Amino acid sequence: MSRDRSRDRSRSLSRDDLRRFSSDTSSDDPKAVMSRIFIGNLPTDRVNRDDVDEAFRKYGPIRAISMLKGFGFVQFEREESARKAVASENYSFMRGNRL
């Protein structure tokens, strides 16, 4: 079973998880840029992609999630979803960190 290094090491991604969303949030396409959000101060040592997906999917379909040390990106399918997520989650808390 493959492991995603950005996840909690005690959990691994299933094949279904890998198909659900990708980790490519680097498109330069203007439409993609407008539907992508930056998540700063993300406690990547205590959350994984499933946690981020669960917190943000209520705003709309997610195409990709990428996580690096202390921050991440969520790529939504629509710009409207990204705007709703920013309006609702800006300065919210995730596992004790203010995003």
Element string (H = helix, E = strand): HHEHEEHEE
Helix content: 25-40%
User: Percent of residues in beta strands?
Assistant: 15-25%
Could you tell me how far the N terminus lies from the C terminus, measured between alpha carbons in angstroms?
A: 31 Å
Low-confidence stretches: 1-15
Strand order, sheet with most strands: 1-3-2
- Please identify, by name, the CATH architecture of the domain at 15-22 and 29-89: 2-Layer Sandwich
Mean pLDDT: 83
Shape from CA axes?
Answer: globular
- The third-level CATH topology of the domain at 15-22 and 29-89 is Alpha-Beta Plaits
Alpha carbon gyration radius: 13 Å
**Structural class of the secondary structure composition?**
alpha+beta
In this structure, how is the largest beta sheet organized?
Answer: 3 strands, antiparallel
The CATH superfamily of the domain at 15-22 and 29-89 appears as RRM (RNA recognition motif) domain
Top CATH class of the domain at 15-22 and 29-89:
Alpha Beta
Keywords: RNA-binding
GO molecular function: RNA binding
Protein name: RRM domain-containing protein
Domain RRM: 35-99
